[in-house]
């Protein structure tokens, strides 16, 4: 959690002036992290608690807000930062950036620029694992906004029909871009919809990392033992705007204040202190995370840009060279 | 070691290609609606019995997830064949094909591959009206990352499907719904490379480039034009992307005139791309013949307005050649 928070904070600073939106103009000096940067600040406990139950060979699909999932699945922080900086040393060689952060080598099959688009992909990957008789599972993260898209219904139904090893995680930050999700959702929302399709479903305080870790663990075991898909509804809060340059001024100040008091890192600290962990060791973990990120920033800044010719690589093999 | 040349239908040729690929590679599977009964056009007939429901997979009516699941399956090591029934239904799976399958390899810096073949039959067929009759090959030719194949004969349906399954790229594979029953010779084991056109008829006055069902209209038009002493060279493009630029240019350089004929709507059709490319390269006269920009009508006289047919080809060629 500390590493995710440190990463998000650093990326946020590096992205200022990167996007023209919300009445802001782009800075005259280009931002180090350009383009839309969707921060998961405040949602760290969901990624951390769920991924603590995954093996390296398990697969994961993510959302546009995917840095936390990627780090928690075991990706290298330096290569992630290099990708955000658009450098050739990034995971995607500068071709994807934040919105497409991925590390296939640890089973992280990608963030996605389209809401709910990871759901069918996760379901298909799980279908393959089942056909291949592999013991692994797929963790499929999506937000509360995704429950109003068609692929949510199709994907959950598909996973139920074929009894696939998927753990769906609805990371419910209560807002769809800049619009509160509640008034946009008929009926009782995410959990009710999952239950209606026969999925085992649990709800959890998504800011309580210990609770998330426990419930996700139970569900992951259940999925891993061939019982079919399960659904975790983790309620959390997005501290920042939709993208990093969005001040999020459309939200109720009291709601934000309340959410900040429920900071998952603060809750974890309190729990650790109560369990007898010395404050100094928690401070040390947070300091180490900040140092790790400082190093990553330095590496990213000094890493080479991709050669323009690489724009023509990894497009397709058939007809390679026919660009017009 | 190719087996004896056999006469079979366009549908049987596709079946044979898939059967051979599935026998050779356990990772090749097929998913789509109604496949358990051999597919609505019989293009999977016999395969459910041989390979079982684990490899010929019946699915819910969920086009988005059929295509999206195929992306996930491909990333996890399978080589899925996706059946969309008709291209019109594939429009429910556009995000999964265009944003996910086509871009995955590039967007993630080459970390993964999406070797899927998405079959989406095209064309006017049995008075099927506006939502079951379209030819949308140009849409997909516009998308970097996708291969687009449009076989016109049983031999090509066999060879191009095999090549598509072997390509490792996401392929939009467009069979024509009025061609399923046509018969032709197929040589098992023969390959048809993607991106290579076929000269179907040799001539010297005019190059006609066509594909899919329109090829048969062109073949019917040629004797009529020859009667009037026009010598026509007919090129079956076979693959829309990558299209055989060299082959087309070679024929056009010889004849000095080009007409492109396709069943798709003419405006913004792939014929425009070919005509423009040939005009840029060779500076010769070019002509397009495609459907008017109207939805396909149900009633025969209305549907006929969207059909090309030999008579319209003859008339267009004669007026172009003067």
Can you put this structure into words, describing what you see?
The complex is a heterodimer of chains A (324) and B (322). Chain A is of the alpha/beta class. Chain A has a single domain (2-304), classed as Thiamin diphosphate (ThDP)-binding fold, Pyr/PP domains (Rossmann fold). In chain A, 40% of the residues lie in helices and 10% in strands. In chain A, the strands form two sheets. A five-stranded parallel β-sheet of chain A has the order 1-2-3-7-6, with helices on both faces. A two-stranded antiparallel ribbon of chain A has the order 4-5. In chain A, α1 (2-14) packs parallel to α11 and α2 (44-51) runs parallel beside α8. With 322 residues, chain B is an alpha/beta fold. Chain B is built from 13 helices and 14 strands. In chain B, α9 links the parallel β10 (206-210) and β11. Chain B starts with 5 loop residues before the first strand and ends with a helix.
Notable traits:
heterodimer; A: 324 residues; alpha/beta; Rossmann fold; 5-stranded parallel sheet; two-stranded antiparallel ribbon; 11 helices; 7 strands; globular; B: 322 residues; 2 domains; 7-stranded mixed sheet; 5-stranded mixed sheet; 14 strands; 39% helix; 20% strand
In short:
The complex is a heterodimer of chains A (324) and B (322). With 324 residues, chain A is α/β, with parallel strands linked by helices.
């Amino acid at each position: 959690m500390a590493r995710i928070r440190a990463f998000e904070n650093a990326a946020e600073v590096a992205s200022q002036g990167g996007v023209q939106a919300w009445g802001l103009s782009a800075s005259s000096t280009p931002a180090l992290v350009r383009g839309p940067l969707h921060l998961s600040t405040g949602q760290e406990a969901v990624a951390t608690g769920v991924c603590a139950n995954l093996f390296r060979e398990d697969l994961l699909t993510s959302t546009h807000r995917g840095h936390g999932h990627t780090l928690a699945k075991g990706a290298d922080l330096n290569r992630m930062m290099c990708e955000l900086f658009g450098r050739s040393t990034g995971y995607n060689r500068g071709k994807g950036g934040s919105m497409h952060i991925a590390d296939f080598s640890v089973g992280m099959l990608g963030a996605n620029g389209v809401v709910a688009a990871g759901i069918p992909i996760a379901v298909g990957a799980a279908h393959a694992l089942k056909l291949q008789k592999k013991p692994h599972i797929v963790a499929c993260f999506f937000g509360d906004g995704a429950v109003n898209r068609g692929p949510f219904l199709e994907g959950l139904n598909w996973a139920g029909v074929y009894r696939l090893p998927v753990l769906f995680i609805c990371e419910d930050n209560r807002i769809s871009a800049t619009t509160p999700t509640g008034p946009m959702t008929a009926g009782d929302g995410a959990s009710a919809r999952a239950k209606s399709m026969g999925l085992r479903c649990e709800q959890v305080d998504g800011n309580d990392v210990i609770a998330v870790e426990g419930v996700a663990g139970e569900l992951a075991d259940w999925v891993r033992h061939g019982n079919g898909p399960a659904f975790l509804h983790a309620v959390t809060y997005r501290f920042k705007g939709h993208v990093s340059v969005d001040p999020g001024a459309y939200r109720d100040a009291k709601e934000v204040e309340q959410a900040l008091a429920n900071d998952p890192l603060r809750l974890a600290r309190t729990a650790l202190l109560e369990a007898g962990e010395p404050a100094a060791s928690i401070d040390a973990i947070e300091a180490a995370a900040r140092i790790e990120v400082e190093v990553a920033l330095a590496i990213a800044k000094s890493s080479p840009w991709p050669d323009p010719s690489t724009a023509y690589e990894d497009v397709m093999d058939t007809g390679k060279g026919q660009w017009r | 070691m190719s087996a004896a040349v056999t006469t079979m239908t366009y549908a049987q040729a596709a079946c044979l290609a898939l059967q051979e690929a599935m026998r050779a590679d356990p990772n090749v599977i097929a998913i789509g609606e109604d496949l358990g009964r051999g597919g609505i056009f019989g293009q999977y007939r016999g395969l459910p019995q041989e390979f079982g429901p684990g490899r010929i997979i019946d699915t819910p009516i969920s086009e988005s997830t059929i295509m999206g699941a195929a992306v996930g399956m491909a990333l996890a090591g399978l080589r899925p064949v996706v059946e969309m029934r008709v291209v019109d239904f594939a429009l429910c799976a556009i995000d999964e094909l265009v944003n996910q399958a086509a871009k995955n390899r590039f967007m993630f810096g080459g970390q993964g591959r999406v070797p899927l073949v998405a079959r989406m039959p095209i064309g006017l067929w049995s008075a099927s009206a506006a939502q079951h009759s379209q030819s949308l090959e140009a849409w997909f030719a516009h998308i970097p990352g996708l291969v687009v194949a449009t076989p016109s004969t049983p031999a090509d349906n066999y060879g191009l499907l095999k090549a598509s399954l072997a390509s490792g790229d996401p392929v939009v594979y467009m069979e024509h719904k009025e061609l399923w029953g046509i018969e032709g010779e197929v040589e098992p084991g023969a390959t048809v490379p993607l991106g290579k056109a076929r000269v179907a008829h040799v001539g010297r006055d005019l190059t006609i480039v066509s594909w899919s069902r329109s090829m048969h209209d062109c073949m019917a038009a040629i004797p009529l034009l020859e009667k009037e002493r026009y010598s026509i060279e007919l090129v079956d493009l076979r693959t829309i992307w990558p299209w055989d630029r060299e082959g087309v240019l070679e024929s056009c350089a010889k004849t000095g005139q080009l007409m492109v004929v396709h069943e798709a709507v003419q405006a913004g059709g792939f014929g425009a791309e070919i005509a423009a490319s040939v005009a840029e390269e060779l500076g010769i006269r070019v002509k397009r013949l495609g459907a008017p920009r109207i939805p396909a009508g149900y009633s025969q006289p209305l549907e006929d307005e969207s059909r090309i047919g030999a008579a319209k080809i003859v008339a267009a060629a004669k007026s172009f050649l003067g």
